[in-house]
Amino acid sequence: MVNTKNLRDAVKKSADKLAKSASKNVDAVKKVTSGKYSNSKNLKDHKHCRECGKMISPSSDSLLCKSQVCIDKFEKDLKVKKQLRLWMIILVIVLILPNILTFLGV
Ligand SMILES: [Zn+2]
User: Is the terminal CB of the chain with fewer CB neighbours within 10 Å at N or C?
Assistant: First the structure.
């Protein structure tokens, strides 16, 4: 009689322990997943204008704020970048062309 009671108590105790640790694990998992979720949400909410760095609505497709100054600056920058790329291509061709010509034996 006494033995079975002890056994039952022991089983109950270990079951309680198991349940406690399980709920702890669940809490930890919940914390991690909720932290991840809020982090990704924060990243999504953060979008800055490429020119002035002002916060802009994450739903907008534009990389700029609505300021005309930034739009003008961005377009100017784009033109300069395009020109720079063109010059790079010309430079590469000028540098490589003699090598190609000698390689071809022209
Ligand atoms: Zn701006």
Answer: N
- The rounded Å distance from CA 58 to ligand 1 centre is 14
The torsion angles phi and psi of 55, rounded to 5 degrees, stand at: -65, 135
Q: Which of 70, 38, 35 is nearest to 56 (CA)?
A: 70
Cα–Cα distance measured from residue 89 to residue 50, given in angstroms and rounded to the nearest whole number:
26
Q: How far apart are the first and last CA of the chain?
A: 107
Residue percentage of the chain with pLDDT more than 90: 42
Residue-range domain boundaries for the chain? 2-104
Q: Report how far residue 93's alpha carbon sits from residue 77's, in angstroms, rounded to the nearest whole number.
A: 24
For ligand 1, the distance from its centroid to the CA atom of residue 62, given in whole angstroms, is: 11
Measured in Å, residue 67 CA sits from the centre of ligand 1 at 6
Ligand 1 center to 59 CA (angstroms): 16
Q: What is the pLDDT of residues 36-53, one digit of tens each?
A: 555 555 556 778 999 999
